[in-house]
Write a structure and sequence with these properties.
169 residues; mainly beta; lipopolysaccharide transport protein A fold; two-stranded antiparallel ribbon; 0% helix
Length: 169
């Protein structure tokens, strides 16, 4: 028996990056894109929204995305996971950072992250900062940097049991 393993859709790496915003400033030499106002970023199954942000592309072609929301509208991230057809990771926070090379998603400021299958909630995390490493398959919820030791924990997780798959020979 082996565990079912699902990760970000590998096909996303080869998809074009589609950007919409009220204002886009492009520095082709440094491969930096500054975005402002009602941002919509799409790359394959990845959809990120925000109000202000920056995308940097390294020489290997990997994108590093950092978007911020407004007090009225949080930044969001959604990605289909490879494996089961209808499994998604989606999150909301004041700030969303995504490193396409390491597949590390970081949600900061009133953060929430959900893993859904057929729109049914499997896992849910709430906290100040949530990191999701898609390659190593882990979540981490952290308090604010100025949290005091005597304060109660401010992280919450609801995690569904993981099932094991039977592989036929």
């Amino acid at each position: 028996m082996a565990p079912i393993v699902v990760w970000a859709e590998k096909a996303d790496q080869d998809k074009p990056l589609i950007l919409e915003a009220e204002k886009v400033s492009v520095n082709e030499v440094q491969q930096i894109y500054d975005l402002n106002g009602q941002i919509l970023l799409i790359k394959g199954s990845i959809v990120v929204t925000g109000d202000q942000g920056k995308i940097t592309v390294d020489p290997e072609g990997y994108e590093y995305v950092n978007l911020k929301g407004t007090p009225e509208r949080a930044t969001s991230f959604r990605e289909r996971r490879e494996g089961t057809a209808d499994e998604f990771i989606q999150g909301r926070a004041t700030e969303v950072s995504y490193n396409a090379k390491t597949e590390l998603l970081t949600l900061t400021g009133n953060a929430s992250l959900k893993r859904l299958n057929n729109m049914q909630l499997l896992d849910q995390l709430l906290g100040w900062k949530i990191e999701y490493d898609d390659i190593k398959q882990y979540y981490r919820v952290s308090p604010p940097t100025d949290a005091k030791a005597e304060e109660p924990p401010i992280a919450r997780a609801i995690l569904s049991p993981r099932r094991k798959a039977i592989l036929e020979k």
